[in-house]
Design a protein that fits this description.
Order of helices and strands of chain B: HHEEEEEEEEEEEEEEEEEEEEEEEEEE
Structural class of chain B: mainly beta
Largest sheet of chain A: none
Number of helices of chain A: 9
Number of strands of chain A: 0
Oligomer: heterodimer
Number of helices of chain B: 2
Strand content of chain B: 35-45%
Order of helices and strands of chain A: HHHHHHHHH
Helix content of chain B: 10-25%
Largest interface: A-B, 51 and 41 residues
Distance between the termini of chain A: 41 Å
Strand content of chain A: under 5%
Radius of gyration of chain A: 17 Å
Largest sheet of chain B: 5 strands, antiparallel
Structural class of chain A: mainly alpha
Radius of gyration of chain B: 25 Å
Chain lengths: 170, 423
């Protein structure tokens, strides 16, 4: 494997978890999330050397991921259908409480538009700056600000999130 | 970010949880290569269609309402590489190697992770999960050598370890790693099979009889199902030995349904001896399904999907069987020998619901009963589409993969030189 290939493998190894978690927040499905991350990375890989030199690779991958997801969500038919049943995985902790949180967050995110959802996930979950978020989405910083405030307003009014027990900040 | 954002971030963080599987660079590369191939295929298809359309227009076929001729049907082809046992003359033992399907060229040899272990040995000491992920068994044993006469002595200690290795898209090996929960003390592994997603492996295990004999006498312990992600194990154990009762003796084949929900076992059932892990003839071969897998249970339970004694014509023997990924059909190797005449070996897909043959995938005449009809091994890729068969009689031995009722020889084509093969 050449240095370029190793760099890509290292990037995937280090960032796949974070990318998959972002993808889950966008898609609400682990199968689709994995598919989305793989597709974004597969599109990035042939141009990896160029991207690495020119840009922050992670921003680029996230841009491809969000664009791919927006394209998918516009389509009625999706090229690849992930399996309905996921393999067993260990479930430590309070499974019921986590499930309630997951369902509430997923349905609250589902009430947002694609762009609102993407802005919220990139800004709040991935901790990107407004400028970076604008770069990922290919829009103006002002658009990010206004979209973010619309998304937050919608979530504040969401009854399912309001009913969740208070979580302690870590 | 303000307090509301922090709280929201905390919620998103809790909701996202942990991804159930890792995304690897290798998987991404495979996908990128597939995308490129699909794009190239689409361009070729477009050119073919355009050419066809042009030809049809010039011939007036469309105006005349006649359909254009020619087929655009395509299929991806068999896996590019397979794993096989090859004889290492220098080391004086079989080793596992990767060969190119098209040419037979050895592209990699799987290193032995333990210096004194026998890895990938036996009939089926390795198995494929998804054409790239393979599992193999390694057995270490310490025995007291027999001082008088031939044959091995008694086993003092024995251990089976299960390793995973990856075959890259260029036929190389990425090294092997011990599977979580893959250390099985006190037992010897027979067959191994992997779920298509690699999340589980099933291993048939035998235990030396109390005096320590293993090669002549052994206790069939059962089949371990190991969750390779959590390392948890469940044992599908043999029933308590009952003299004279028809019981599980051994299994020639193991397979999983898609998603690893059920383990399907082709098993020999007979009046076996207390310390015999095989039947001395008169076995009824049965395909049974066991699940849910995480709990384990008795091999005297499960439900029967197919039974040799129910096959027609009478006397048909069932020597190999794998379940289809959706669990609806069994792909089996059947041999029928009329009292006077030549035996026929068939590879057929049989409906689980009706027990009827849905499709004969390959058929070959193998000579008379006394010419040594045999089938050495049969393996399937995870999709069940590409099958490897090594069979024949005497000099008419064949070794290859089945493609539209033909057997495409696997290089090297000499069946006598081939060890077990899987992809």
């Amino acid at each position: 494997m050449n240095a370029d290939g190793e760099g890509f493998a290292r990037f995937v190894d280090l960032r796949q978890r974070a990318l998959q978690r972002t993808a889950w927040l966008l898609t609400g499905d682990w199968g689709l999330a994995e598919d989305l991350v793989q597709t974004a990375l597969a599109r990035t890989w042939p141009r990896w050397e160029k991207i690495r030199r020119r840009d922050d690779p992670e921003i680029y991958v996230r841009r491809v991921m969000v664009n791919t997801w927006v394209t998918w969500s516009r389509r009625k038919w999706r090229g690849e259908r992930p399996a309905k049943d996921l393999p067993d995985s260990p479930a430590p902790g309070d499974v019921a409480a986590e499930a309630v949180t997951r369902v509430a967050v997923r349905s609250a995110l589902g009430s947002l538009t694609d762009r609102q959802r993407a802005v919220l996930v990139l800004r709040v979950f991935d901790d990107l700056t407004e400028a970076q978020t604008a770069q990922v989405l290919g829009c103006a910083v002002g658009t990010v600000k206004s979209t973010m405030s619309q998304a937050l307003a919608k979530l504040r009014a969401d009854r399912r999130l309001a009913e969740l027990p208070e979580r302690e900040n870590q | 970010m303000n307090g509301t954002d922090w709280n929201l971030r905390d919620l998103l963080d809790a909701a996202a949880g942990e991804p159930p599987r890792r995304v690897t660079a290798e998987a991404v590369r495979r996908r990128a290569v597939r995308r490129r191939a699909a794009r190239a295929g689409a361009v070729s298809l477009a050119v073919v269609l355009a050419a066809g359309l042009g030809a049809a227009l010039s011939a007036g076929a469309i105006h005349a309402g006649r359909p254009p001729t020619g087929s655009t049907r395509q299929h991806a082809g068999p896996p590019r590489y397979y794993v096989t046992q090859i004889w290492d003359a220098k080391a004086g033992k079989f080793v596992l190697a990767v060969r190119a399907t098209a040419t037979g060229r050895v592209t990699a040899v799987i290193g032995n992770p333990l210096p004194d272990a026998n890895c990938g040995g036996g009939n089926v000491g390795f198995a494929a999960a998804d054409n790239q992920t393979f599992f193999m068994t390694c057995v270490t044993e310490h025995s007291t050598q027999a001082t008088r006469g031939p044959g091995p002595g008694t086993i003092d200690s024995i251990e089976t370890l299960i390793y995973r290795f990856q075959v890259t898209s260029s036929g190389r090996i990425t090294g092997s790693s011990l599977v979580r929960g893959g250390v099985l003390k006190g037992v010897w592994a027979g067959h191994i099979a992997a779920a298509p997603d690699g999340s589980q492996v099933a291993v048939e295990v035998l235990r030396p009889e109390p005096s320590g004999k293993l090669y002549t006498n052994a206790v069939p312990e059962g089949i371990f199902v190991i969750n390779t992600r959590t390392g948890s194990r469940a044992l599908w154990h043999t029933g308590p030995y009952v003299p004279g009762a028809i019981q599980y003796a051994d299994d020639p084949d193991l397979s999983f349904t898609s998603g690893g929900r059920e383990l399907v076992v082709l098993e020999a059932r007979c009046h076996r001896g207390r310390y015999l892990a095989f039947c001395n003839g008169n076995a009824d071969m049965q395909v049974r399904a066991y699940g849910p897998l995480s709990a384990g249970g008795s091999l005297e339970g499960g439900h029967v999907l197919l039974q040799q004694s129910a096959l027609r014509p009478r006397g048909t023997s069932l020597s190999d069987a794998f379940i289809s990924p959706d669990g609806s059909a069994v792909t089996a190797v059947l041999t029928t020998c009329p009292p006077h005449g030549t035996c026929t070996l068939s590879v057929a897909r049989i409906s689980v619901a009706t027990g009827r043959v849905l499709r004969v995938l390959y058929q070959v005449r193998t000579g008379t009963r006394f010419e040594g009809v045999f089938e050495r091994f049969f393996s399937s890729d995870p999709s069940g589409r590409y099958l490897i068969l090594d069979a024949g009689a005497g000099s008419a031995r064949v070794n290859g993969w089945i493609d539209h009722r033909r057997l495409v020889p696997l290089a090297p084509a000499d069946g006598n030189a081939a060890g077990y093969e899987a992809w």
